[in-house]
Design a protein that fits this description.
The complex is a heterodimer of chains A (262) and B (309). Helix content of chain A is 37%, strand content 26%. Chain A is of the alpha/beta class and 262 residues long. Chain B contains 14 helices and one strand; from the N terminus they run H-E-H-H-H-H-H-H-H-H-H-H-H-H-H. The longest helix of chain B is centred in the middle third of the chain and has 32 residues. The two termini of chain B are 31 Å apart. The chains are: A alpha/beta (262), B mainly alpha (309). Chains A and B meet through strand 1, helix 1, helix 2, strand 4 and helix 3 of A and helix 1, strand 1, helix 3, helix 8 and helix 14 of B. Strand 4 of chain A pairs antiparallel with strand 1 of chain B, so a sheet runs across the interface.
């Protein structure tokens, strides 16, 4: 592993990453509609350049915030770093064990109980049954779900759903925690607990990549921030600077910067 | 690519992950299959919980797994033993000459029961394959939230459906065994040929599960016509009839039907005969071809699933 020496303090290295989707225009893609469209010589897919040459590093123990308007490519970036989406170009290096808390949470199958979902999610993520069993108690306790763990997840309230998702993500002992818009989990009491737990993860020399529209959270939690717009990295720097520039941009609206992108 | 040494480290294993575009769209096979092996517990657990969830709310619970094939067998009993007799003015139905040569006098005398045994065993095998295909076709779509949240080799999903279908097949054997003896079918060393034929059926079904699982992501109506396609296939396969019942002119075309050698060989084995090498090897060839085509298509497309779901 001599080639890793340069990355001693880097947790995530993103180099010139491009992600292009060929998204289907049809709401519900069917063979029939595809054939009909082909017959009419209509395009079935549209290319969406979600990320266009994004590069930055996240150092170990740092919290990196990602801000940007809707459609900036934030969630795509999170999913690509998590290894769920594939880059079309470029390369991402991850040094450490990743745990994700993305918008959808753990809810894999709502007909199954919370317990079954936790076990299945853990097994899919590559944990052994032993590891999952060891963490299960902590997760249940943290999520404060009690007997609900045995009930199908379709009986859960949305707060219970996100509490469980958060509990799972933070208890996987991640070196790198990727959080997408999930900071609003639960009520005030749980939010406080969640914030404390995230601080603990970072204090244990963990690294975090956080997407949030709550700029106050980014300012408070992050050591550094990046601003994405239309799939491009506009600026990287101290959270205060980035947020000031971003808010100014939001207030000004469509300015020269946006137009440059087209 | 400046540092190939690192990029051979795979996407899922270890503490250093590299995400890059795949060459010709396929992941490196070594790490991919190692990781499937490592996470196989997920496939088993998923099948187990789904089986549990399917029956757990019903009054009879898990007994359904045996009860269901028993009730099916009862329907076939009426079709064969009862109706075959009354349909021939109460006289015994005589099997075709080719078949008489293969059956023992006891089986010929008991032809209704013999047909019943053949029909039951062949249909249970057919259901094994069709359940693999039908649940496999939906496996990727149903794994939606998990695919959107976790990086893992998606082949575990159709693999889990295959295991689920096999687990459902096992209780049908319990139902079949007494029928086998009631029909006075022989037990010999040749009966063991049933094992590789079932293995071929499972591998063949797994390949199609991957194929249709992928197609289903792109065309959501595949699942709607699949049951009809499977029903036609049933009638084209030696399931409700014997291989010997087929008209001579049809036989050369039967090589085109993958289930012909597989179901045919299975039927022969349970009838106490060794299936011809043509059947054993033909079935194996179809099983391998199906896995290769389905598997390569699945792996080349699986990184797109998260976008398409």
């Amino acid at each position: 592993m001599s080639s890793l020496s340069a990355s001693d303090d880097v947790a995530i290295r993103i180099q010139n990453v491009h992600v292009t989707f060929r998204a289907n225009i049809q709401r519900n893609p069917t063979l029939k509609s595809t054939l009909v469209r082909m017959g009419r010589r209509q395009q079935n897919v549209r290319e969406i350049k979600a990320l266009q040459g994004v590069s930055f590093d996240v150092h170990k123990g740092h919290v990196m915030g990602v801000v940007g308007a809707n459609g900036a490519g934030k969630s795509t970036l999170m999913r690509t770093v998590a290894g769920i989406l594939a880059p079309n170009e470029g390369r991402i290096d991850i040094y450490g064990r990743v745990s994700t808390l993305l918008a959808l949470g753990v809810g894999f199958n709502s007909a199954l109980s919370g317990k079954e979902n936790v076990v299945l999610g853990g097994l899919a993520a590559g944990l052994t049954r032993k590891e999952i069993a060891a963490k299960y108690e902590e997760i249940t306790e943290f999520a404060e779900l009690g007997d609900f763990m045995e009930l199908p997840m379709k009986t859960y309230s949305s707060g219970m759903f996100s509490r469980l998702a958060f509990a799972v993500a933070v208890h996987m002992d991640p070196d790198i925690l990727i959080i997408d818009e999930a900071l609003s989990a639960g009520d005030a009491h749980f939010k406080k607990k969640a914030a404390a737990k995230m601080k603990q993860v970072v204090d244990d020399a963990g690294t975090m990549l956080v997407v949030s529209h709550a700029l106050g959270v980014i300012k408070e939690m992050c050591d550094e921030a990046v601003w994405l717009h239309h799939g491009r990295l506009i600026r990287q720097g101290k959270p205060d600077e980035i947020i000031d520039a971003y808010t100014e941009f939001l207030n000004v609206g469509d300015n020269a910067l946006v137009l440059e992108d087209f | 690519m400046n540092n190939k040494a690192i990029s051979t480290e795979d996407e899922y294993l270890g503490e250093h992950h590299v995400y890059e575009p795949h060459h010709v769209g396929l992941p490196p096979f070594g790490p991919y299959f190692r990781e499937i092996r490592r996470r196989r517990g997920f496939a088993f657990e998923l099948a187990r919980t789904q089986m549990h969830a399917a029956n757990t709310d019903t009054a009879l619970g898990q007994i359904w797994l045996v009860l269901n094939p028993m009730l099916l067998a009862a329907v076939y009993y009426i079709l064969t033993v009862v109706l075959m007799r009354s349909g021939n003015n109460g006289k015994k139905v005589v099997p075709p000459a080719d078949l008489i040569a293969k059956l023992s006098p006891g089986q010929v005398a008991n032809y209704g029961w013999e047909s019943f045994a053949h029909l039951t065993s062949s249909l249970f095998l057919f259901f094994l394959v069709s359940t693999i295909i039908l649940t496999g076709a939906n496996s990727v779509i149903q794994g939606g939230a998990l695919i959107m949240n976790t990086p893992f080799p998606k082949m575990l999903l159709p693999l889990s459906s295959t295991y689920l279908a096999f687990r459902r097949y096992l209780p049908t054997l319990l139902v079949y065994i007494p029928i086998h003896f009631l029909a006075r079918r022989p037990i010999s060393i040749n009966t063991l040929w049933a094992v590789p034929m079932v293995a071929e059926a499972v591998v063949f079904g797994f390949g199609l599960a991957m194929l249709f699982g992928t197609l289903q992501v792109y065309f959501r109506d595949v699942a709607s016509f699949l049951p009809y396609f499977i029903r036609i296939w049933l009638y084209l396969s030696p399931v409700i009839y014997y291989v010997e019942n087929l008209p001579k002119a049809m036989k050369p075309f039967m090589i085109l039907n993958p289930l012909f050698p597989i179901a045919g060989g299975y039927g022969e084995a349970l009838g106490g005969h060794a299936p011809s090498m043509q059947m054993v090897l033909g079935g194996a060839a179809w099983a391998i071809a199906s896995c290769l085509i389905g598997g390569l298509l699945f792996m080349s497309r699986e990184r797109e699933f998260a976008v398409r779901l």
